[in-house]
Amino acid sequence: MRRVRGWSPGRRDQRGSAVIELTWLGILLLVPVVYIVLAVFEVQRGAFGVTSASRVAARAYALAPTHEEGLRAAEAAAELALADQGVDRPLTVDVRCSAPGGAGDARRTGVAVCREPGAVITVVVGTSTELPFMPEVLGGGTPTFALESTHAVPYGQFREAGS
């Protein structure tokens, strides 16, 4: 009987176990990487949505004939822009105006200033986005990222003052 070097009758055969180890190692590494990619995409989608929402809200407000209609149009436009990105979270729309003439007239702010020719309308839209697949068991609530975007548009130097 010929004896194979390094083999003894009591030893288990290890052939084929590398495939199993590689498969488990791949699964253990792949799952967290896929989750991180999904979480980054979710936050990026919210960031795209809030940026688009602030831009269209500022334009909608600037084109509206009155302050009240402008606020309604800005909020509706922001909600629509966020819905386009699949974000259905509550949002805040804040409209600020600065007087024409730059920093020297900074003391003049408010609703009346928004409709003066040359005024700058600044719209701030804020919302949040949740991380996907996070159970409440791990921390009492789903982790969220706060998202905010600002966009400024001029009312128009050669426009008639509105109400």
TrEMBL record:
Keyword Transmembrane: yes
Transmembrane region(s): 21-41
Keywords: Membrane, Transmembrane, Transmembrane helix
Name this polypeptide is given: Pilus assembly protein
